[in-house]
């Protein structure tokens, strides 16, 4: 097979169907950009889970005088010193507990004023209305239920709360957005494949006289099909390169510069450049193989060789 002939045929085919080639490039670029973005989103969610789940605490809120009047869990009155000592002693005996921190009513009031000092409710609160609590750092954040089972409903305990539940709602939302992006990506891939098949079909039809002559002179099936397959592969590779550019530009301007989220949202542990760069070869390989395979199977139907 003469490489020069194949390359010339690729160039002719791409120029002859320029509009459809452009549509293939754009659809492949968008679908693979969404593909790479969904992969990076999954990495980001997993990174955030590892970062935040390691920092979550279980809080045991103790009954105060106000709770004794209004909360059924505190019907026996405010927590006593003996009850607090008993709870702390039991916590220190548990293997799942890594660290226990006590927060007094004054400390809780100060923290509330720092976080919600501008709210109308803050001016009407007093320290004695706040709850004392034990903040428990677990060795394994998944073992929250051990603490809840041991202390929920105990005398002097108003409630046991797990911060992990709040994070689970956040990560559930992020995962939902990620699956929505994947659904759009799948739709775009279907559109890209349909465009590739139609482009190959039009290209094969417009060159049916040349392929007929090649059959008559004994050219092999692969020799005839190769230019069409490589046309699709080249168009896909261009789209994949554009998709990689989108991801790199998005990472640079959204996180590092431009919006500069890495500094504005310093509580979020963003994924690094290594996560982005490791996805680029996969995107390029997909952009090359997907159109080539689509063209190969389309030619079996539309090009009788």
Automatic annotation (TrEMBL):
TM region(s), chain numbering: 21-41, 179-200, 221-254, 280-299
Keyword Hydrolase: no
Entry similarity comment: Belongs to the ABC-4 integral membrane protein family. FtsX subfamily.
Upper taxonomic lineage: Bacteria, Bacillati, Actinomycetota, Actinomycetes, Kitasatosporales
Function field: Part of the ABC transporter FtsEX involved in cellular division.
Signal peptide: none
Pfam families: FtsX, FtsX_ECD
ABC3 transporter permease C-terminal domain ranges (all copies): 183-301
Predominant location category: membrane
Membrane topology listed for this record: Multi-pass membrane protein
Record key words, sorted: Cell cycle, Cell division, Cell membrane, Membrane, Transmembrane, Transmembrane helix
Subcellular compartments: Cell membrane
InterPro entries, A to Z: ABC3_permease_C, FtsX, FtsX_actino, FtsX_ECD
Protein name: Cell division protein FtsX
Domain FtsX extracellular: start-end pairs: 56-160
Summary of subunit composition and partner proteins: Forms a membrane-associated complex with FtsE.
């Amino acid at each position: 097979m003469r490489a020069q002939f194949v390359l010339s045929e690729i160039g002719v085919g791409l120029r002859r169907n320029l509009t459809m080639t452009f549509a293939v490039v754009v659809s492949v670029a968008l679908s693979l950009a969404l593909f790479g973005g969904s992969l990076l989103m999954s990495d980001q969610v997993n990174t955030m889970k590892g970062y935040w789940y390691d920092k979550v605490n279980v809080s045991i809120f103790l009954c105060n005088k106000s709770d004794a009047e209004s909360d059924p869990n505190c019907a026996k009155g405010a927590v006593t010193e003996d009850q607090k000592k008993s709870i702390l002693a039991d916590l220190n005996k548990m293997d799942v507990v890594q660290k226990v921190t006590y927060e007094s009513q004054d400390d809780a009031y100060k923290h509330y004023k720092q976080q919600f000092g501008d709210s109308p409710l803050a001016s009407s609160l007093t320290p004695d209305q706040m709850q004392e609590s034990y903040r428990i750092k677990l060795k394994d954040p998944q073992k929250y239920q051990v603490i809840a089972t041991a202390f929920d409903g105990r005398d002097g305990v108003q409630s046991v709360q797990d911060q992990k539940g709040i994070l689970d709602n956040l990560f559930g939302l992020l995962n939902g957005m990620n699956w929505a992006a994947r659904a759009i990506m799948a739709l775009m891939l279907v559109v890209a494949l349909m465009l590739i098949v139609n482009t190959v079909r039009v290209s094969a039809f417009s060159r049916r006289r040349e392929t007929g002559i090649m059959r008559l002179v004994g050219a092999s099936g692969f020799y005839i099909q190769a230019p069409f397959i490589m046309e699709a592969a080249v168009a896909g590779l261009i789209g994949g390169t554009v998709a990689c550019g989108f991801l790199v530009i998005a990472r640079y301007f959204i996180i590092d510069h431009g919006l500069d989220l890495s500094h504005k949202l310093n509580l979020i542990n963003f994924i690094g450049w290594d996560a982005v760069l490791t996805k680029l070869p996969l995107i390029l390989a997909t952009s090359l193989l997907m159109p080539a395979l689509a063209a190969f199977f389309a030619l079996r139907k539309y090009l009788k060789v």
